[in-house]
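Case study B.
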Amino acid sequence: MKAKLSRLWWSLMAMIVLCPGFALAAGGGNEAPIVIVADTRKLTGVLAWWANLYNESHLQFMLLTIVLIPVTGVVFGVIADLIMSRIGIDLKSKDLPGH
Amino acid sequence: MEWLYVLMPIAGVKIFWPGLIILGVGVGIIGGFFGMGGAWMVTPGLNILGFPMAFAIGTDIAHMAGKSLISTMRHGKFGNVDYKLGLIMLVGTVVGFEIGAQMVMWLERIGSVEKVVRWIYMALLAGIAWMVFHDVGKRKKLERAAAAKGEVLDDSVQGIDFASKLHKIHIPPMVHLKEAGIYCSAWLPIIVSFLTGWLAGILGIGGGLIRMPALIYLIGCPTHVAVGTDLFEVAISGLYGAATYTWKGRTELVAAMIMLVGAAMGAQVGAVATKYIKGYGIRIAFGLAVVGCAVSIFLKLIKPWLPGYGTLLDNASTTLVLGLVASMSIYIFMRMVAGAKRELAMKKNR
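Model:
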C-alpha cells in the first residue's frame, strides 16, 4: 500500500510540475488571440454605453463586473433572507449532524 | 412577443430573458443545496438559449460568483464552512484554473472548444456518478448487514473511504481542519484543489461539481461541510474566473445580472434546505442530477453521427436539462418547505 501511495504521490507531483509547461506550450506560438468587438450600432442608452466601455477598455469593464456581481448577489440574497426570517425559519443553526 | 427578448450588447444575440431568470432560480437552489455554482447546468442551458459557448462560460462564471458569495455566508452561519481548508485549497484552485482557462483560449483558436469541453464533461460526469452510487450502494449494504445483527449503522460510516488512507500520508506541514474534523498533510488539499481547479478552468465551471465529491471522497469532509466549504471556494474562484474571462472579453454581464436576480434568492433557499436533509440524502440527489446532466450532454455529442435526428436530439437535450433543473429545484424547495413547517410546528409546541 505504501509503495502504491508513494507512486500516486510522485505521479501527482509530476503532473503539477509538467502541467504549466504543457499549458504554456499549448498556448504558445505567434497566433493572435481572437478579439470580439461589440456592435454598438443597434444599441441605445445604457446598453450602448456598456458596449462602448467593453470595446474601449476591457480593464474598466472587468473592474465594474467584479464590483457589480457580488453587490447584486448580496442585495438579492439578503432580500431572500429577510423573507425567510419573517416566516420564522431559524437561519442560524442546523439540526442534522452526520457524514 | 418581442418584449420577451433582450439584445445582448456584447455577444450581439437576442436572448429570451424569462428563460435566464428561470434558469437562475433553478440553478441557484441546486447550487446552494449541493455547494456548487451549477455551471454544468448553466453552460449547456445558456448554450441552448442561444449563447456562443465561449460567452456562455464567462457569463456563467460571473453569475455564480455572486450567488455563491451570499450562499457561503448562509452556510457559514450553520457551521458548514471550513474557512482554513477553503483558503488552503484556494492556492491550488487559482493556479489550476488559470492554466485551464489558457487552454480553453488555445482550443478556441484551433476551433474545437465545444467538442473538447463536451467530451471532458461526459467522462467526468460518468466517473462522478459511478463513485456516488457505488458509495451509496456500499453504505446500504453495510446498513442491511447492521440491521441483520439488530444494530443501527452509525451516521459517520461511509461506503467509500479513500480519505482515511490519504490522511495517513504524513508529509509536512500537517494541518488540523476543525470544522471538517480532519488532520492531514496540507499537500492533500493543495493537490486536490489544483487538479479540480485545472479541470474547472477547462470546463468553464466554478469547480463545485468536481470539488464537492473530491472534498467528500478524497479529503474526507462530512457532506454538509463539503457543501459549505465548496461554496466558499466557488465564490472566490468564481470571482477570479469572472475577472479573467471578462478581461479576455468573454463575459456578457447583462445576462449574468438578469440570472443573478433569481440565482441569489434561489441559492438562499437551497442553503437553508440542507438544514433538513441528511448527508447521504444530499449525495443521492447529487448523483441523480449528475446522471441527468450526463445524458443531456451525451445527446448533444451523438448529433454528428445521427444527422437525420439533429432537431429531435437538440429538443430532447433542452427538455432534459430544463426538466432536470425544474424537477430538482422543485424537489429541494418542497423538502425545504416541509422542514420549515416541521420546525415552525416544533417552535409552536415549545
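DSSP finds three helices and no strands in chain A. The remaining cases will be described in the next quarterly update.
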